[in-house]
Specification:
With 534 residues, this protein is of the alpha/beta class. It folds into 2 domains: 242 residues, Spore Coat Polysaccharide Biosynthesis Protein SpsA, Chain A, CATH 3.90.550; 182 residues, Alpha-Beta Complex (Spore Coat Polysaccharide Biosynthesis Protein SpsA, Chain A). Helix content is 29%, strand content 19%. It has 14 helices and 18 strands. Strands 1, 2, 3, 4, 5, 6, 7, 8 and 9 form a 9-stranded mixed β-sheet that branches. The protein has a 7-stranded mixed β-sheet with strand order 11-10-12-16-14-17-15, sandwiched between helices. A two-stranded antiparallel ribbon has the order 13-18. Helix 8 runs antiparallel to helix 9 and helix 10 crosses helix 12. It is elongated.
Length: 534
């Protein structure tokens, strides 16, 4: 009798028609499975695992299936996953690690589907190591959808030549417009299966399970065919972007660098890396380099420590070895420099003379030019503390510099970032034989530029302190490309050989009309020249 009661009680609990007791949330968070395919992904693991550890879903309701397809030569994915499993097993319903080559037909998706069905999971999320999730609430939202198959949008990191996970010819903006759910013709990882739906029992990734199937044995193509023949619609949920995609066709080192630049963008936008790292698998910082320059300067005001912190974070994650140059503060200009404004200068937009902030900005750059000439540095990179570098910046800079040496290009200054003026683009022409290098016309900004020793000498030879204009007006004047002839004719030596990289690799953190934009030059008092007492 006792044995019968022991066996009968669990059955009664399962079949009970009464609502769950207070505190029982199992009906809100059904048991589910996450299956992840990993190759050489050690660079992304600290953040992928950090997302799993911090996802807003009860861990004891989640099975994790991790599928490895690595040879161990390129990185340490296998070792990191084994270590993480040992540290995290108690948090989850289960963690299983599978070697792809040991699976029948190496079909990890079919193995995962069968495994989830055997465990009576309500939902199955397929994930790929090329994708980095960013939304900790994603599971809670997507698991409450009623469709059998749902994909969601991924975006490529800023400035990254990637793709998003819906292979459609329609423009992304059109895909994201309209209702939340849109029916689509095909899916790619990641996506969700609702295994509680009766229709999902007919879905498969194995061509042997589909009658008269003669198509490609690609698991995804088999899956799409099985859905089509059974009339099961496929949907994309456009209500939220869930993360970023790094295309596997790119070389591994490029994908690693793309992740670093994505992290740098997060630091710019959120003052820190806004996606959590795993508690047990930490991300190593790259070794710092100067990327072909003798020095890399970052100009920063002492009273802007928050900007310095952001730039320090950027330098850490992308591996940039830089020196911080304390900017000359327009609020406390030094008396050691005799300054005289160009009499005819008035700001073209606001019709005013220079501000204290513009004078301080000019002197900050001027001091770098002086230091470069006195120390004999042959080539350096200057960045202001609101510089945002794009993915692939140093690859393009390296290719440009390599070709410039081969073609013996005698350059003085190369814009890394600038504000183009559409009416002055006639001088923008490719330099023959040099990747990414163009001649340049009148431009604004000094957010980032490369400078040679000869270029620094040309800038000093113009004697700008005797007839000062804002620094971003001064550069095109000394390069003899400024549209204001009156200003330009005030300077005799206009020998700066100026170019630009194209496409640009440096942009400001924020533009004038964006929230959080701050200007220490525009939002400053008008400069009043000091006059010696009689």
């Amino acid at each position: 009798m006792i044995l019968l009661l022991v066996l009968f009680i669990p059955v009664c609990l399962c079949l009970s028609p009464f609502p769950p007791e207070d505190g029982d949330v199992r009906h809100l968070y059904p048991q589910s499975t996450i299956s992840i395919l990993l190759g050489s992904h050690s660079h992304i693991l600290p953040y992928l695992l950090g997302w799993i550890e911090n996802v807003e879903y009860p861990k004891n309701r989640l099975h994790l299936n991790i599928y490895l397809s690595v040879d161990g030569k390129e990185d340490s994915t296998r070792e990191q996953i084994q270590w993480w499993k040992g540290q995290s097993s108690s948090l989850f319903k289960s963690i299983s690690i599978h070697e792809i080559e040991k699976l029948e037909g190496s079909n990890w998706a079919e193995h995962s589907l069968n495994n989830a069905r055997q465990r009576q999971s309500s939902f199955l999320l397929f994930w790929n190591g090329d994708d980095l999730p960013s939304n900790s609430r994603f599971l809670t939202k997507i698991f409450h959808q009623s469709r059998p198959v749902i994909s969601s949008l991924l975006v490529s990191p800023p400035s990254y030549r990637g793709r998003w996970n819906i292979d459609l010819s329609t423009d992304l903006l059109k895909i994201k417009s309209g209702t939340e759910l849109k029916e689509i013709d095909g899916v790619s990882f990641p996506f969700i299966l609702n295994l509680d739906k009766m229709d999902s029992a007919y879905l498969t990734f194995d061509g042997g399970n589909v009658r008269d199937y003669e198509g490609n044995e690609s698991p995804l193509e088999v899956f799409e065919f099985s859905a089509k023949v059974m009339g099961i619609p496929l949907f994309v949920d456009r209500s939220l972007d869930i993360g970023w995609h790094f295309h596997s066709s790119f070389p591994l080192e490029e994908r690693r660098m793309s992740l670093r630049f994505l992290l740098a963008d997060l630091i710019v936008d959120h003052s820190s890396i806004s996606i959590p790292q795993s508690r047990s698998v930490r991300a190593p910082l790259p070794q710092k380099k100067k990327f072909g320059f003798e020095k890399i300067y970052v100009i920063n005001l002492r009273r802007r420590p928050e900007r310095r912190k952001i730039m320090e974070g950027i330098c850490d994650v992308i591996g940039m070895d830089c020196e911080f140059m304390e900017a000359t503060d327009g609020r406390s200009l030094p008396s050691s420099y005799p300054l005289t404004q160009l009499h005819s200068f008035f700001d073209p937009s606001s019709k005013r003379k220079m501000t204290n902030g513009e004078v301080g900005c000019f002197l900050s750059h001027y001091r770098i030019w002086e230091s470069m000439v006195s120390s004999g540095v042959s080539r350096l990179l200057v960045l202001e503390d609101d510089a945002r570098l794009v993915d692939g910046a140093f690859k393009m800079i390296g290719e440009m510099m390599e070709d410039s040496v081969k073609e013996r290009i005698d350059w003085g200054l190369i814009y890394m970032g600038r504000k183009r003026t559409p009416q002055h683009t006639k001088k923008d022409m490719w330099v023959s034989g040099v990747r990414h290098l163009s001649t340049v016309g009148y431009s604004y900004w000094t957010v980032g530029y490369a400078l040679s020793l000869d270029g620094a000498k040309s800038l000093l030879n113009g004697k700008p302190l005797e007839r000062m204009v804002p620094v971003d007006e001064y550069l095109p004047i000394i390069a003899n490309v400024h549209p204001n002839l009156e200003w330009m004719n005030a300077f005799e030596d206009r020998s700066l050989r100026m170019f630009t990289i194209h496409p640009l690799v440096v942009y400001p953190h924020r533009y004038t009309n964006e929230k959080g934009h701050l200007s220490d030059t525009e939002e400053s008092e008008i400069y009043i020249e000091r006059r010696e007492e009689l």
